Amino acid sequence: MSTVNLSTITKRFGNVTAVKELDLKIKEGEFFTFLGPSGCGKTTTLRMIAGFYYPTEGKVKFNEKDMTTVPPEKRNTGMVFQNYALFPHMTVYENVAFGLKVRRISKNETKSRVEDVLNKVRLDQYIDRQVSQLSGGQQQRVALARALVIEPDILLLDEPLSNLDARLRDEMRNEILRLQREYGITTIYVTHDQVEALTMSDRIAVFNFGECQQVGTPSEIYNKPVNDFVAAFIGETNLFSVTPDKENEGIAVFQSTDFDKSIYVGHTEENIGSYVEGEELVMSIRPEAVRILKDSDDGNNVFKGKVSLVQFTGASVHTYIEMKNGALIRATDLNNGPSTYLKEGTPVSFQLPQNQIRV
Ligand code: ADP
Ligand code: MG
Fold first, then answer.
1. In the chain, count of helices (H) and strands (E)?
2. What is the mean pLDDT of residues 190-206?
3. 125, 127, 144, 265: which one has the fewest Cβ atoms less than 10 Å from its Cβ?
4. Which ranges carry the ABC transporter domain (predicted)?
């Protein structure tokens, strides 16, 4: 087990800056996820930790030991690649044993370690199969076994589930978590899939354009996004541009051209970032926080509109409400909630709870 410390690392390829001044501290035994859209520098960062790339600037440390330019085979990291990178013409045993052979581990020890890890990933019956005869999910397990068999200090996984179908992805998600907990191994997981990130991680770093936008636990990232990129990338949200108005007894007031009345937001550090007066800001409210009202009362943050679209997804129902000036807001309810049976065109009122708005 090991900590990973990236201090102000930058990686340039010619004039492309793939990763820019990244600072991250990953704790021992942590399941840490790099999340972001394609091309934002996730793989490049992972490769700098594995040693396949060296940073242009900055330092990579494991347990405070400088590893910045240590070659990959001397870092004791296990890596699972997006396309698995298995040897298709070799057996499961030969694939998994490969890393031990390179490390000149004895035949007997190799055999017992390979059998042990194949047992852990539940592939013991397939030990003599050729990899090319296995299903995608089984190949994924071979790749995991191959990374784990060397008893790495750090496990690096680059979008390991992206080639699997939805059902298998769910299963492997749990499988990876089980193995990670069992081995207690520091794990860095790369994905563009927010559900994977939210369900698996102890902490998440959200990347965009080579820079880290926010680091936090899944609930911090979801409930307290620091900017509109994070709010929109992690889950669904409603975004509106607003300008600050006068503030009264801890309640901040905002105006928006999308709303016909002021919007009130409890002014806590969590709800509102720092801003200068007159600045145009972005307001975010999650669809599940938007409350559709049965009676059209006239309280704070109660607005009127009409239902423009209802989408039934099974477990939940999305209702799009169009306001007077055409702006849309989405409300999400559980199936059988108050909005389940609303018809398109119905006039409705909805409320934006003061403590659930982020500006
Ligand atoms: P991600 O894994 O988040 O999709 P990458 O780390 O692969 O992103 O890429 C980040 C950026 O760096 C992209 O713009 C990509 O084109 C560029 N890049 C990555 N690897 C190389 C390379 N070997 N040579 C040149 N550019 C690269
Ligand atoms: Mg990548």
1. 8, 19
2. 95
3. 125
4. 4-234
Q: How far apart are CA 233 and CA 184, in angstroms?
A: 29
Model confidence pLDDT, tens digit, residues 238-254:
999 999 988 888 899 99
Pocket test for ligand 1, best of 44, 159, 212, 233 (most atoms within 8 A of CB): 44
Residue located nearest, by CA, to atom 27 of ligand 1: 13
The number of the ligand 1 atom at minimal distance from the alpha carbon of 53 is 23
> Is the beta carbon of 216 within 6 A of some atom in ligand 1?
no
Q: How far is the CA of 103 from the centre of ligand 2 (A)?
A: 28
Which residue owns the Cα nearest ligand 1 atom 12?
18
Beta strand segments in the chain, E: 4-13, 16-26, 31-35, 57-62, 65-66, 77-80, 154-158, 186-191, 203-208, 211-216, 238-248, 251-255, 263-266, 281-285, 291-293, 302-312, 316-323, 328-334, 347-351
Instruction: Enumerate the domain spans of the chain.
Output: 4-229, 236-356
The closest ligand to the CA of 82 turns out to be 2
List pLDDT tens digits, range 43-54.
999 999 999 999
Q: Per the CATH hierarchy, to which homologous superfamily does domain 4-229 belong?
A: P-loop containing nucleotide triphosphate hydrolases (3.40.50.300)
Nearest CA to ligand 1 atom 2: 43
Q: What percentage of the chain exceeds 70 in pLDDT?
A: 98
ipTM for the whole complex: 0.98
Whether the CB of 43 sits within 6 Å of ligand 1:
yes
Q: What is the mean pLDDT of residues 83-107?
A: 91
